[in-house]
Amino acid sequence: MSTLKLFILRHGQSDLNHENIFCGWIDAKLTDKGRSQAKNAGQLIAQHCKSNGITLPQIGFTSRLLRTEQTMDVILNELQLGKKDEVSGQFNNPVFVVFDYIYTLAEIRSYLLSEKEENPISNEIPVLRTWRLNERHYGAWQGQRKPKVLKEYGEEQYMYIRRDYNGRPPEVDLEKEMIQKHDLGAATGYEFKEPNRSLKYELEELNQNIKLPYSESLSDVVARLEPFLDEIILKVAKEFDLDSCLIVGHGSSVRSLLKILEGVSDEDIKGVDIPNGIPLVIELDKTNNFKFLRKYYLDPELAKINAEKVRKEGFEENP
What we know:
The protein is α/β, with parallel strands linked by helices. It has one domain (1-310): Phosphoglycerate mutase-like (Rossmann fold, 3-Layer(aba) Sandwich). 41% of the residues lie in helices and 11% in strands. It is built from twelve helices and seven strands. The protein has helices at residues 15-18, 32-52, 66-78, 101-118, 146-153, 155-163, 174-177, 197-200, 202-206, 218-239, 251-262, 300-311, and strands spanning 3-10, 60-62, 95-97, 127-129, 244-249, 280-285, 291-297. The radius of gyration is 19 Å and the shape is globular. The active site is at residues 11, 135.
C-alpha cells in the first residue's frame, strides 16, 4: 500500500468524563459506556479494514493513563489481536513504557525485527505507552467540576483557557492535589487526585531531559508530542513499511496529532472537538514523506453529535 493509515481515537468515556470533571493526568477508569464505546470502535475498525482491504493495525500506541490502556485492550480483543505474553531480551513487559523516544528507538527496532523474523504471521502486536500521548495537564483545574470552574472564572476566561491554542490553567500544587506516599487518604479539597509522580512516572523522572508539566496549553502538548510522532511513530512505520497503526489518546493529544499532521492553524484548532471512542482515520502518503492526504471518522454522524457535546461541557448537566 502507498498510504499509511493511522487509526486515532480518544479513549472511551471515563468515570470523570461522566462526572463532568477536568481529568488531565488523573488515572480515571472507563465506565461501562466507555467499554461499550471501545468495543464499537474495534468493530468499526475491523469492518473498515475488511471492506477496504486494509491491514489490521500492526503496532499500537497509548498514553501512560489507564483509560487509554483499557480502551486499547478492548479494541485489540475485538480485532482478535493480542499483546505478547513473553518478550525476549531486555524487555520484560509487552506494553513498553517509552520514556525517552531517542533512547528507546534502537530497542523498539530490535524487538520488531526479531518478531518479524521469528513469527511473520503472528497476530500479536507490540503496544507502546508514552507520557507524550497523555492528556493535557489541566493544572489546578484537575479534579474540579467544569460547571464550578466556569462559574469561578467566567465564560470568556473559561473558554480562553480551555480552547485557545495558548490558553493555560494555573499551575497545580502537587503537594495538595497529588496523592502522596505518606498520606494516601488525606482530605485536600480535591475529590480526585493525580497519582504520585515518583511512583507512576519513576522512569520519566530518572531522565533529566524530561520535565513533566504542572499545567499545559494545547501548544505545550503539541511541543511534547511532535518529537514522538516524528522519531517513533513515523520512523518505525517507514522502517518496517507498516500499513496501519492504532493510536489511543485523549482529546488534547488527538487534537495535537491532527494539528501536526494536517497542518491546522492555531486559530482553527480552537474549533476542533474530539468525541470519545470514535475512530478517526488519517491517511498519509508513504511515498511523499508521510504527506497528509485525508481524514475521516468511521462514524461521521455520531462523531459530529458527540463532538458538539464535548464543546458544551461545563455549560450543561453531566452527560
